[in-house]
Amino acid sequence: MKHNRSSLAHQARYALRNPQKIAPHLRRLARDTWLRLSTRDHVAYYRAVMKSDTARSPEGAVGSHSHERWLALGRMQFDYLLDHGLKPEFRMLEIGCGNLRAGRLFIDHLHTGNYYGIDISPDILIAAQATLVEHGLRDKLPHLTPVRDLRFAFLPDEHFDVVHAHSVFSHSPLPVIEECFAHVGRVMRPDGWFDFTFDRTEGKEHHVLREDFYYRTETLVALADRYGLDARFMDDWEKLPHKQSKIRVTRRS
Q1: For residue 195, what are the CA distances in angstroms to 1, 199, 209, 240?
Q2: Whole-angstrom distance, CA of residue 166 vs CA of residue 64
């Protein structure tokens, strides 16, 4: 977690160890360079990335390179929140719900109408609709909404017991995360919590192709504090087979 993955030295070492990945990386570099030049901001850029990735594979677009991994990562997220007290009567907002890798389990567990999923990608939300049909979840009436930002302007005050964002901040520059922190407290209940994962580094903060962002824990804790939120690093999540770390945010009383 100390490596600067954007450095030329790291990339050279990685290429020597993994020569089979050089061509795919160059294709990704070319695509992302074109998308950055042809879009106006990070949200528009990443929406275009998701459109491209979803066209190839919705499960791959959310970071799962096999169906088995898609199922396992969804189950890991669900079991973790269940162990932390997620109740059927809770109302839940999932930021970056994707094609419902974990959302399908949350929807099934929660009371009808209590799941709200938002995503910047209309294409992945169409894939989410297919997941609802495949898993027989239409009668649970989940709310699936495309968004352009993380201001949550269309959502009511103090509505959600749980807010959840998995593999969202790992693809977000700091201003996007700050926008979320500035507004998420308004839609959370006073005793609610907001769990998010992030790519953690203990060295220099950096990004790779403006798709993958690496942050120090203290940076995100201090940013949450600026908006009246208490943030706690979740050590028990570190024991699970996932490369990202997790922070839990609560409203300051």
Answers
A1: 21, 14, 25, 15
A2: 13
What are the Cα distances from residue 228, in Å, to 8, 231, 234, 251, 252?
39, 10, 19, 7, 6
Please tell me the distance from the alpha carbon of residue 5 to that of residue 70, in angstroms, as a whole number. 25
Q: For the segment 203-214, what is each residue's pLDDT rounded down to a tens digit?
A: 999 988 788 999
What stretch of H or E contains 36?
Answer: helix 22-38
CB-based contacts of 12, cutoff 8 Å, min separation 6? none
How close are the terminal C-alpha atoms of the chain, in Å?
Answer: 33
pLDDT score, position 17: 67
pLDDT of residue 18: 64
Q: Considering only CA atoms, which of 207, 216, 137 is closest in space to residue 172?
A: 207
Helix (H, G, I), strand (E, B) or coil at 172: coil
CB atoms within 10 A of CB 153: 10
Residue 8 pLDDT more than 60? no
What is the DSSP code (8-state) at residue 6? T
**Phi, psi at 67, each rounded to 5°:** -65, -35
CB neighbours (10 Å) of residue 147?
18
pLDDT at 37: 86
Answer yes or no: are the C-beta atoms of 73 and 142 closer than 8 Å.
no
Question: Longest C-alpha distance within the chain, in Å?
Answer: 53
| pLDDT given at position 5 | 59
169 neighbors 215 (Cβ within 8 angstroms)? yes
pLDDT tens by residue, 177-194: 999 999 999 999 999 999
Q: Tell me what pLDDT residue 210 has.
A: 80
